[in-house]
User: Which sequence fits this backbone?
């Protein structure tokens, strides 16, 4: 485990998480994350070889409902909170450089 | 005029039997919110007109002879991370400031069908991430016992609203202690039900394998009454368990004689305030004197719970909060350069500091090269913690401990140091990791007059026994009957 995070790693993680962060935030998060990661490394005191991971407190299985047609949101309701819409679509900036649509 | 009753159970009885009306009780709640909430700031939104209209409809239905529900006429508050088709649902975040839900959370439907009136939505740490409610983007909720101190968190608004008598009962959500710790800091009862007991449909997700909605009230009886209403299967949450819902109120009268109560010295170690320790040990003596058998137990992996939790909860949060992207709902930043910039700038501008920190921690723990060492390691340790509790509950019926290492702390004491804040969850977090049920019950006051909480924990779906022990404790003690001083006389007043 790497207990100290440098600023370039913090910038990489922020980019993976799609978070715009300022230089000040990068410096702050490098310090805070390093301290927290140092704390969590106490887990290495435990030998967990052969221990099954627990992702969930209950023995859950996928639950499927009956495959029947049901009412669902009308487009207007699904789009009611959209910051920008056009007709029945969420509107976003152009994704591809060349207009392929 | 005869004074109106103060507990949810008594209000429901009085309205059902015609001695009182929903309208009178809702009007009183609105008056109290109006008088106190400018100082307390327990509520993020409060719609008195809607509440009064609902109350009038309930009174009218009763006059026509409709059978009253178990919460008829009871004003309740809910944490603002539960979706309502009325008002806003902000989760305490700028990114959801404009959000109006198109559907009601399961618990909202259940409360309203039972005759309760939702009078407002309470403040919280942004996305329920925090232990003091200081991480709310909108307001600073004050502790009614001392307004210079935090109410705890993340359900600080719900706990403060109940403690100050603005409403008799409220709902919170508990991912690592967010119902129990504020209940303890505010001197009220708070229950985290067994994982799967209550549907999470319509709860804004933080850590999906840990989150559970739970009631807050001044008495265990009221908490049992609310749990009976909100518990049960809901096909819209596939993790809600399809098991019968017992009558939790009827179960309260079980005696504590012969109940085996486990006490683990791991809960009384370094960092625990002396006054909290004494008060909790005295509470255990009260139960012993009432006939409970005190059994010494050992939970060897408890000290790893915080480390384990802050990897798992942040990993789940980083995934859950990916949906806030500025596209479908919520805040969108101005003038994005391209679609990636739209995501990053909307999220960067509208998430608060703690939320960004947790998303980054979780993203790191799940990222290539670190997944096995951090995330998978934490899941294995979670197994060890869960086994500790399985072993303990093969010997005892209930475990007793403190809720938090200290009483309510002052604003700013821990807000610059995330790790110090995380450590205040040390006794509550393991219940979420293992999925068991756990409750905070008032058990005394420190020398500053601040409430102390006793934590009682039970095995999965052991709520009946858990609630009965809490109720019997309240029959033998009067800590829960003490109310905070009037705000004008508050020691935290400027």
Assistant:
């Amino acid at each position: 485990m790497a207990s100290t995070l440098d600023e370039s790693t913090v910038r990489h993680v922020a980019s993976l998480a799609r978070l715009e962060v300022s230089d000040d935030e990068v410096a702050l998060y490098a310090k805070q994350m390093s301290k927290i990661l140092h704390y969590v490394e106490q887990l290495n005191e435990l030998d967990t070889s052969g221990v099954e991971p627990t992702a969930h407190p209950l023995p859950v299985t996928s639950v499927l409902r009956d495959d029947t047609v049901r009412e669902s949101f009308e487009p207007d309701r699904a789009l009611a909170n959209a910051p920008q819409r056009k007709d029945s679509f969420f509107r976003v900036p152009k994704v591809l450089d060349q207009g392929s649509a | 005029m005869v004074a109106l009753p103060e507990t949810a159970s008594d209000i429901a009885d009085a309205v059902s039997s015609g001695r009182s009306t929903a309208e009178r009780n809702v009007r009183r709640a609105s008056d109290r919110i109006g008088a106190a909430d400018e100082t307390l700031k327990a509520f993020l939104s409060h719609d008195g007109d809607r509440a009064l209209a609902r109350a009038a409809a309930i009174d009218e239905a009763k006059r026509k002879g409709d059978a009253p529900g178990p919460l008829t006429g009871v004003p309740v508050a809910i944490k603002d991370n539960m979706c309502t088709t009325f008002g806003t649902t902000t989760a305490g975040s700028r990114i959801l400031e404009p959000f109006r839900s198109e559907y009601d959370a399961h618990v909202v439907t259940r409360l309203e069908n039972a005759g309760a009136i939702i009078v407002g939505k309470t403040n919280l740490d942004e996305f329920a991430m925090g232990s003091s409610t200081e991480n709310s983007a909108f307001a600073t909720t004050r502790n009614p016992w001392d307004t210079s101190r935090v109410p705890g968190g993340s359900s600080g608004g719900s706990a403060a609203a109940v403690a100050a008598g603005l409403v008799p009962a409220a709902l919170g959500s508990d991912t690592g202690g967010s119902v129990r710790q504020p209940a303890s800091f505010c001197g009220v009862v708070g229950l985290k039900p067994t994982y799967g007991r209550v549907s999470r449909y319509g709860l804004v997700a933080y850590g999906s394998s840990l989150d559970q909605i739970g009631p807050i009230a001044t008495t265990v009886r009221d908490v049992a009454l609310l749990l009976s209403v909100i518990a049960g299967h809901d096909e819209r949450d596939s993790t809600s368990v399809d098991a019968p819902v017992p009558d939790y109120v009827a179960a309260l009268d079980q005696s504590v004689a012969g109940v085996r109560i486990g006490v683990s010295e791991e809960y009384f170690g370094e960092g625990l305030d002396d006054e909290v320790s004494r008060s909790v040990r005295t509470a255990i003596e009260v139960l012993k004197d009432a006939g409970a058998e005190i059994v010494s137990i050992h939970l060897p992996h408890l000290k790893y719970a915080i480390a384990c939790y802050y990897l798992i909860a942040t990993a789940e949060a980083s995934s859950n909060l990916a949906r806030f992207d500025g596209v479908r709902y919520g805040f969108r930043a101005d003038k994005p350069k391209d679609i990636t910039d739209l995501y990053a700038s909307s999220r960067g501008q509208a998430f608060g500091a703690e939320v960004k920190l947790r998303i980054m921690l979780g993203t790191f723990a799940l990222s290539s090269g670190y997944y096995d060492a951090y995330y998978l390691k934490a899941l294995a340790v979670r197994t060890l913690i869960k086994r500790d509790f399985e072993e303990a509950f093969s010997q005892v019926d209930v475990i007793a401990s403190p809720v938090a290492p200290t009483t309510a702390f002052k604003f700013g004491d821990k807000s610059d140091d995330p790790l110090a804040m995380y450590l205040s969850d040390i006794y509550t977090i393991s219940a979420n990791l293992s999925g068991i049920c756990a409750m905070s019950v008032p058990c005394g006051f420190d020398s500053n007059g601040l409430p102390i909480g006793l934590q009682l924990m039970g095995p999965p779906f052991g709520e009946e026994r858990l609630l009965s022990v809490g109720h019997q404790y309240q029959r033998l003690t009067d800590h829960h009957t003490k109310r905070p001083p009037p705000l004008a006389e508050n020691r935290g007043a400027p």
